[in-house]
Design a protein that fits this description.
Blueprint: H1 4-12, H2 19-35, E1 42-46, H3 52-61, E2 66-70, H4 83-91, E3 99-102, E4 118-122, H5 131-144, E5 148-153, H6 163-178, H7 191-200, E6 205-211, H8 218-226, H9 238-252, E7 261-266
Parallel strand pairs: 1-2, 1-4, 2-3, 4-5
Antiparallel strand pairs: 5-7, 6-7
Helix pairs in contact: 1-2, 2-3, 6-8, 6-9
């Protein structure tokens, strides 16, 4: 019997020869199931990136639903494919009829806002440069939906094999405090922090769970990048240099499993 991912790839003729993408899709299907995305829903996705989550959402809402996918990044951002290139591939499939992509778009000033059945935040909160900015997003989200589906890496790792990803995330966040960069880790938010921020924005937490995601490649990717940053801290205060070196040393002695993912459903 074919897996859900295999059926998806054949149905829409996407990612058939991309084994890495298939692994990423599996995780997005798990998130969509956790969110409870249903046929006919109108969904806004904030921080759509190359569309990994977007295509799964579009599959789940079906022809009678719609996904509005926005990202503050421009079309030339991303590698090996840019966001624009990835979106064009998606738009050439039947899924394209169910998706409206909006790049260079800040949610706070997005003119196309309306009421949505649900808003999805999937692995996009660490891009935020400050908790204040994220809090502004959450407060505005509360005015246009009754359902917030939030997913992010869980810093509270439960297995030593995940320590490397944890250390890498810490290093990349530290690096973002000493230099401006376009890294996908700017500010770390824990499950508890997001829980409080959602409640402060007026949401009640209807459900929360942990989604197993150790099999994803993200831990290896983040560790690979973090290992190149030792010299970036040479001009930093001594305490920061020592902390960065210690994290790099600990990371090198760790496994490469990714962190698990926490899901919070706000209503």
């Amino acid at each position: 019997m074919k897996t859900e991912v295999e059926v998806f790839c054949e149905k829409y003729q996407l990612f058939n020869d991309d084994e890495i993408q298939k692994v990423q899709l599996l995780h997005r299907f798990q998130l969509a199931q956790s969110f409870g995305i249903e046929e006919g829903m109108t969904v806004l996705e904030i921080g759509c990136g190359q569309g990994d989550m977007t295509v799964v959402l579009a599959d789940k809402v079906g022809a009678s639903g719609h996904v509005t996918a926005i990202d503050i990044a421009g079309g030339d951002y991303g590698a090996p494919l840019t966001l624009e290139q990835s979106h064009q591939k998606i738009k050439q499939t039947v899924l394209g009829e169910r998706i409206s992509f909006h790049l260079d778009t800040d949610f706070l000033s997005f003119e196309g806002l309306k009421h949505y059945d649900g808003i999805v935040f999937a692995h996009s909160s660490w891009y935020f440069h400050s908790p204040e900015r994220l809090a502004e997003y959450l407060s505005k989200i509360r005015t246009v939906t009754s359902n917030l589906f939030f997913a992010e890496w869980d810093l509270a790792f439960t297995d030593i094999s995940q320590r490397g990803h944890f250390c890498a995330a810490m290093l990349l966040a530290l690096h973002s405090t000493i230099t401006e960069n376009d890294s996908n880790i700017q500010h770390l938010f824990s499950r508890e922090t997001i829980h409080r921020m959602m409640e402060d924005a007026g949401f009640s937490i209807a459900r929360e769970e942990t989604v197993y995601s150790r099999y994803l490649q993200d831990g290896q990717w983040e560790m690979g990048y973090a290992k190149t940053l030792r010299d970036a801290f040479l001009k930093s205060p001594t305490q920061l240099q020592t902390l960065a070196t210690s994290l790099i040393d600990a990371m090198k002695q760790s496994g490469t499993d990714s962190l698990d993912t926490f899901v919070l459903i706000g209503k």
